[in-house]
Amino acid sequence: MSTLQPAATPESLPTESGETVTGSRVGRGKGATSKAAGALGSRWASLVAVLIAVLWTTPTLGLLVTSFRSARDINTSGWWTVFTDPSGLTLDNYRQALEPGAQSSFTQYLINTVVITIPAVLLPIFLASLAAYAFAWMPFPGRDALFVAVFALQIVPLQIALIPLLDIYTNKLGFGQSYWSVWLSHTIFALPLATFLIHNFMRELPGELMEAARVDGAGHVTIFFKILLPLLTPALAAFGIFQFLWVWNDLLVSLVFLSGPEYAPITVRVAELSGSRGSAWYLLSAGAFISMVVPVVVFLSLQRFFVRGLLAGGLKG
Amino acid sequence: MTTSYAGNVAYAVPSAIPSAILPEPLLRAESTAGKFLLMFAAVAIFAIVFGLILFLASLFKGRRGEQAQGALFAAPVVLLLAVGLLYPALLTIQQSLRGRKGDGAYGFSNYAEIFTQPELLTVIRNTAIWVLLVPFLATAVGLLYAILIDRARGEAFAKALIFLPMAISMVGASIIWKFVYQYKQTERPQIGLLNQVLKSLGFETQQFLLDAPRNTIMLIIVMVWIQAGFAMTVLSAAIKAIPDDIIEAARLDGVSGFRMFRYITLPSIRAAVVVVLTTIGIATLKVFDIVRTMTAGQFETSVVANEFYNQSFRYDAQGLGAALAVLLFVLVIPIVVYNIVQMRKEA
């Protein structure tokens, strides 16, 4: 809406730019004032946009700069002084935070995060795509009622299930403190949304495709693997990224089921440090960024799928 | 760090925990390699179960067999949800009715306590402030930004800047903002950005996270910072979906600027705005990480989700905690109903 030089904008549509050029050519006389007003408006618009962008990025920049300063510098001067006096930047904080075996190390926690995340992303994708296929294309008794029930469970906050689940894991299954508790919990909490999202994508596929395959004698198993899965890759990727970010960034589920460097993920450790050693900024800043690198990279490289999933209604809390 | 924990678990005896349904090596690992092995083993087990279901399904033939196949495909999800979500939820509801510890006589004492005890009333008040402010502020910023950068040069980059907080954890976001709010006495050199700004303008520096009720607003800013990117993405897509001829026709009629927004843009994206507001509203209701990381609910900043955790795991009041979890569920319902009603109206 703020575009006044459509020719210079790669995103603007060719028809629109043609329109604008003709418009200004026709009404050259009276167009001048409105054009000036528009230019002013767009300047204000740009200013406000830049202001928001700066407000939104400065806090992160501050902590990022801080993570490269010595513990002493962090507590005696503001991070912004680095821009006038860039000496004294160091990698020591990261070295300390990543050194294996050190008391302050995040390495074990980072490994735990990876070990927790990968199965907790794959398992719901497996299970939900199977169920979504059944709900979308296989008739069986009670199907619609079950699907509505699965769909409705999306609104149940996971808090309401946590304590009985902890009891089941510890006293009935004997998992206690183990990854299985979090793998299963993350899977269970993801299933309603995953089934719903993947079901929606499946329903969009033409039924004739399945019909034709059936006529050719293909069974459901063949159809599922040979026809549906390849077509569903974008949908599975969209859900996969959601689940990845959700599990990687989760605090509550891991806090309830796991503790200590043996199993706890990095979010639990950073939150714990923030409470117990709230002024150890050299460690907190480095730890926070170590925990952020992977999700940010994944997010930026797969943004396309993420946005698609978002627009398909996939956000859970 | 790893070695200090080795030996605590009896590896040699697989039946160290008799009730475990999995043998000990598949349950726990201490070394890094062991952890990854365990991870691959878990994925392999899941894949085997998955394959088994498919194999069983392929055995069924004919019309009845097809129905059995469908039921078999849906069975794992339905079973897991029934045992892992529905049943625990019912247990929680039951526990919430059985006194402070969740094991006494049935009654509504926990719910009465939530709405009479002063500290818990503060929790309810804070939650209300969160749910009223966050969705509207985040949506307002997201919408404004989406309109400002629509079709501007470098739009993708401009979006990524606002969007990035969505990728990081709420714990990380809390650390980032805790540092912005960091307090030092006015005469000392400042390390927190916000207090430096105050000092530069000639004001006294402030303990942003300690002084109620302002500290709740300070926490709310973090959530707005995270959610604005979500609002912007969805609303930006909705704005781009407005047919060009509608805009063109309005423009020919001389509509522009704010009136264009009020009479053309906003009505066209109404459905998306409702979705964004309700989605952020639900996420806000359940907010836990931010409060936990920044203040742990002290200094009158606690909200329902955080209080649920504190009561259940720190104060050993499982019944009261369960009641708070149920309250969370009850509070989600009106937002969802509003969403559905609005969507029906739209359709």
Gyration radius from CA atoms of chain B, angstroms: 26 Å
Given as residue ranges, the uncertain stretches of chain B (5+ residues, pLDDT < 50) are 1-18
Give me the secondary-structure category of chain A: mainly alpha
Shape category of chain B: globular
Cα-to-Cα separation, first versus last residue of chain A: 33 Å
Beta-strand content estimate of chain A:
under 5%
Helix content of chain B: over 70%
CATH topology of the largest domain in chain A: MetI-like fold
Roughly what is the average pLDDT of chain B, rounded to an integer? Answer: 87
> What's the main sheet of chain B like?
none
**Terminus-to-terminus distance of chain B:** 59 Å
How many β-strands of chain B, per DSSP? 0
* CATH homologous superfamily heading of the largest domain in chain A: MetI-like
What does the main sheet of chain A amount to? none
Can you give keywords for this protein?
heterodimer, A: 317 residues, mainly alpha, MetI-like fold, 2 domains, disordered N terminus, B: 347 residues, 16 helices, 71% helix, 0% strand
Topology summary:
The complex is a heterodimer of chains A (317) and B (347).
Chain A: H1 14-26, H2 28-66, H3 71-76, H4 92-98, H5 107-137, H6 143-152, H7 159-173, H8 179-204, H9 207-215, H10 220-249, H11 252-257, H12 266-276, H13 281-301, H14 303-311
Chain B: H1 2-5, H2 24-27, H3 32-59, H4 62-96, H5 109-114, H6 118-149, H7 155-163, H8 170-180, H9 193-200, H10 214-240, H11 244-252, H12 257-268, H13 270-285, H14 289-294, H15 304-314, H16 318-346
Summarize the structure.
The complex is a heterodimer of chains A (317) and B (347). Chain A is mainly alpha-helical and 317 residues long.
